[in-house]
User: What shape does this take?
Amino acid sequence: MKNLENKNILIGVTGGIAAYKVVEVASRLKKLGANVKVVMTKSATEFVSPRTFQEITKNAVYVEMFGDAANFNVAHISLADFADLVLVAPATANFLAKSAHGIADDLLTTTILAATAPKIFVPSMNTNMLENPATQDNIKILKQRGIKILEPADGELACGIVGKGRLPEPENICAEIVKFFSTEKILSGKKILVTAGGTLEPIDPVRYIGNRSSGKMGFEIAKAAENFGAEVILIAANTHLELPKNLKFVKVESAVEMREKVLSEFVSVDAVIMSAAVADYRVKNVSSQKIKKSEENLTLELVKNPDILKELGKLKTKQILVGFAAETENLFEYAEKKLAEKNLNFIVANNVSVEGAGFGVDTNIASIISRGGEVENFPLMSKAELAEKIIFKLIEILQGEKS
Ligand code: CTP
Assistant: This one.
């Protein structure tokens, strides 16, 4: 089957020794039915001749920013518009640095800035260059902007050392591209409700009880669901993050308010992902005036908040329900208990006491526990990557239901 029929793929080739392997990537993509165009940096042409790519892709290969003035057609714009997907392989440290900082000093970097299509970069370089904090920071910036970075492989490098930095094998790069197109817009027609942030429970007009949730995880989930074509409603409590585009945003403060908004959307949605940190208790008698200090001790009486997810678990008909379990001990035991008690399809469990996981940071270390006890453990990854894993799991369940 030609999985990539009618897909326009722009390959950027930068100056790394692995450039020769990308000839095979281009060839495989062609065989899968894609229309492939190639932009090379000048250094890349030191490793592979543009003519090789031209023969393979049956398209002109672009290197020069300013070619023949008589045929000037603003190549960087037409190439950017052409692409359904931009693949840069190998992506050198220099290219990653320029791209992370918006530098556009050749045809490839200029085209990348102009292209709105999704992008996959495949770094390949010497291990020390890869592990250099400058390169790692640049990779982090690019990931945060939604660019997919394929992990370099381990093995013997051209420089003679053995380590991480090899370009993954062409078949693996192509498999990622096929996966990208097969899941693209796969959620179109589906409506997904995501909650994010941490609720604030008022004490008086100026004070509240709150928690440390920033809302980052929920925002990344909302973005990932939207990228896969879903109609997304994001109900967020007390977040200060840049609003993702193309979704319905509902701002709330307290758990009671969040419950009300969630319930009003629930019947029409296909899935709910409750990533919000909902306060378990609220102040029983909220003072209408600012509380003045008087006694040595002040006692606030707290009452239990509604458990929104548990309520949804009882009400659910067709909806897929996903919860979070942020724990500091007995992670799996507590998470499995929540999964069952709240009638969820799966739960994302993380130990918030581990460095790199939990509140405020851009990364997370989590496990997905499904009904039936299946557990997927993920290593430290960005919240954007974890969001994608969560959405993949959701897609799996939605597709299972269809068949
Ligand atoms: N949740 C909810 N309503 C609440 C509390 C939590 O919908 N009042 C949701 C959260 O969004 C999350 C999951 O339930 O998806 C977390 O489960 P929960 O048992 O409430 O976790 P904790 O609040 O951490 O509970 P505990 O203190 O018992 O660990």
